[in-house]
Amino acid sequence: MRTITQQVFGGTEVLELVDIATPEPGAGEVRVAVAAIGVNPLDVAVREGWYPMIGEPPFTLGWDVAGRVDAVGAGVTSLAVGDRVFGMPALPGAGNTYAEQVVVRADELVRTPDDLDDQRAAALGLVAYTAHRAIVEIADLQPGQRVLVQAAGGGVGHIAVQLAKALGAEVVATASTGKVDVVRGLGADEVIDYTRHDFTEVLADLDLVIDPFGGESVERSLAVVRDGGTVASLLDVRDEDVATAAERGITLDRIRIVPRTEHLQAMLDHVMAGRINVHVSATFPLDRAGDAHDHLGTGVVGKIVLLP
Ligand SMILES: NC(=O)c1ccc[n+]([C@@H]2O[C@H](COP(=O)([O-])OP(=O)(O)OC[C@H]3O[C@@H](n4cnc5c(N)ncnc54)[C@H](OP(=O)(O)O)[C@@H]3O)[C@@H](O)[C@H]2O)c1
């Protein structure tokens, strides 16, 4: 089967398409014939080596995946050959999903409903889990509360806006000029064009801020959240911001993903009920994974998906 591998950290040129032996599922595992692979900034960070989550190369990138079970290992009773499934296996270990086939623990997969296509299923996992973690698990967002979703046109942001609205919150969002209308269409009550306005000058006393940038950005998020509120940071936070949050009784959580299928299932329920739409704005063939990486950060709305 074909898979993408890399021997060293680096730019997109380090990604190689190679043929390897088809992997066989062990006890408790299934093999998935991959139909679609969700691309995330995490893939780029691991490829480049600035976030060496799975250690040194050689390795195969990729976590989000959707496809069909084509082999079942010993002891697996929950899934059978032919079942459509999706998930984000092995995090924080190697997911190996940039491939035509991947072996996954059966208990890390969720069945894909008939009405959900593979591209959207593959796009859903990581961003849906992240939004769920911030909004439901950490902040326990209640109807009427006010949330700021930064980078609302991106993968996490576009799901977070819709989830917060589905829970009855008032949603303020930031996006660049070209995405303002899209984000309003997702249900945001107010969209601030971050290229023209500084949200710290117009917002205050929010219950929750979702901060995708971490670092110095968290200081700005803390400036607009109420005492006792929550800031969910998707990247690392500085010690001084942890101290400020503690002084003000703010929950400052650096989100780390640990996949759990019940949370994927909860988000899937929102999708199937029409409360959340997963937006796939571009697809690339697997052998152009590098181009897909380059396409991230070029004004993409929602998600990019690889097709083997
Ligand atoms: N901790 C975790 O478990 C976890 C999970 C998922 C993601 N993450 C991290 O969270 C970040 C976002 O992930 P993603 O999947 O949503 O990425 P993405 O799909 O690439 O979206 C990033 C978005 O950031 C927007 N943006 C850039 N500069 C901005 C600014 N100054 N203000 C507001 N928006 C801005 C971009 O929109 P424009 O085109 O409008 O500029 C883009 O839509 C990444 O760093 C990722 O690694 C962490």
Descriptive overview:
It is a single chain. This protein is an alpha/beta fold and 308 residues long. The protein folds into 2 domains: 2-112 and 278-307, Alpha-Beta Complex (Quinone Oxidoreductase, Chain A, domain 1), CATH 3.90.180.10; 127-254, Rossmann fold (3-Layer(aba) Sandwich). The chain has 8 helices and 15 strands. Helix 5 links the parallel strand 11 (206-211) and strand 12 (225-233). The longest helix is centred in the middle third of the chain and has 21 residues, at 118-138. The termini are close together. Residues 40-42, 126-127, 130, 150-151, 153-157, 174-176, 179, 194, 212, 234-235, 255-257, 296-297, 299 line the site of NADP nicotinamide-adenine-dinucleotide phosphate.
Q: How would you spell out the order of helices and strands?
A: EEEHEEEEHEHEHEEHEHEHEHE
Instruction: For the record, give the distance between the C-alpha atoms at the N and C termini, rounded to a whole number.
Output: 10 Å
Oligomer category = single chain
Low-confidence stretches: none
**Ligands in the structure?**
NADP nicotinamide-adenine-dinucleotide phosphate
Largest sheet: 7 strands, mixed
Structural class: alpha/beta
| Shape descriptor | globular
Q: DSSP strand (E) fraction? A: 25-35%
Tell me which CATH architecture of the largest domain applies here: Alpha-Beta Complex
How many DSSP H or I helices? 8
Q: What is the fold named in CATH at topology level of the largest domain?
A: Quinone Oxidoreductase, Chain A, domain 1
Number of separate domains: 2
CATH class of the largest domain: Alpha Beta
What is the rounded Rg? 19 Å
Provide mean pLDDT, rounded.
97
